[in-house]
Amino acid sequence: MAVLAPLIALVYSVPRLSRWLARPYYLLSALLSAAFVLVRKLPPVCHSLPTQREDGNPCDFDWREVEILMFLSAIVMMKNRRSMFLMTCKPPLYMGPEYIKYFSDKTIDEELEQDKRVTWIVEFFANWSNDCQSFAPIYADLSLKYNCTGLNFGKVDVGRYTDVSTRYKVSISPLTKQLPTLILFQGGKEVMRRPQIDKKGRAVSWTFSEENVIREFNLNELYQRAKKLSKAGDNIPEEHPVAPVPTAVPDEESKKDK
């Protein structure tokens, strides 16, 4: 059983591992993580390295190197448990096609209030967040599929415009895990957001996948409604926004969230 369990886990993770290997920055990360160990252990390269070991063996770790490796491993695991013992590189910033309008602290309010018939989905992100960088291509793909005259996608960097995070109550602290945050605006007002926030100000666990965003924000219905409004033209009077059907709220959330 002790042998079968790791083998089953390895077979199960093969598809994910193949996608992982297809990205060059992950390969670079693995090489950088293993570079010092290879140099220290691989003769004849290790014979030219200095050492503080009592036996004078240059092809093995001394006490100082062991302490440094343990300290770095502890920092990596505290920052991100998924990293385990690999000192991973950050994924590169997404540079692909998208239909997304980028807001600043001075333009976000004006854009949301400009035409109240337009529905906005706005992502509050920070460039230093790994979760935001991982979600960037998914959000860009959604904008390419669903963006139209009456349904727009926007982004605002709350790591740069901290007053926007305060105004829209999005914490940028890594401990709260509120980044990224998606907020749906209809009629210039917030209708819903993901992830939701519990009583302690921490984000309720929610997966930022394309399927979850489409389902939770009811993008198909919003898209069809927005297309009808855009075809009708400017002669149709403003209608009251219709919010997506909310999902069940976890018990630990506050009354305000409910």
TrEMBL record:
The subcellular localization recorded is: Mitochondrion membrane
- Record SUPFAM superfamilies: Thioredoxin-like
Q: Which gene encodes it?
A: TMX2
Name the Pfam families for this protein.
Answer: Thioredoxin (PF00085)
| Cellular component terms per the entry's GO annotation | mitochondrial membrane
One Gene Ontology BP term is: brain development
Query: Can you tell me which residues the record assigns to a coiled coil?
Result: none
Originating organism: Lipotes vexillifer
The name of this protein is Thioredoxin-related transmembrane protein 2
Q: Which stretches does the entry tag as region Disordered?
A: 233-258
Q: How the protein assembles, per its UniProt entry? A: Monomer. Homodimer; disulfide-linked. Occurs in both reduced and oxidized monomeric form. Oxidative conditions increase homodimerization. Interacts with CANX. Interacts with ATP2A2.
Outline what the protein does: Endoplasmic reticulum and mitochondria-associated protein that probably functions as a regulator of cellular redox state and thereby regulates protein post-translational modification, protein folding and mitochondrial activity. Indirectly regulates neuronal proliferation, migration, and organization in the developing brain.
Q: Where is the Thioredoxin domain?
A: 78-231
Q: Which InterPro entries match?
A: Thioredoxin-like_sf, Thioredoxin_domain, TMX2, TMX2_thioredoxin_dom
Tree of life domain: Eukaryota
Q: Mainly localized where? A: mitochondrion
Q: How does it sit in the membrane?
A: Single-pass type I membrane protein
At the highest ranks, the source species' classification is:
Eukaryota, Metazoa, Chordata, Craniata, Vertebrata
Keyword Transmembrane tagged: yes
Keywords from the UniProt entry: Membrane, Signal, Transmembrane, Transmembrane helix
Single annotated GO MF: disulfide oxidoreductase activity
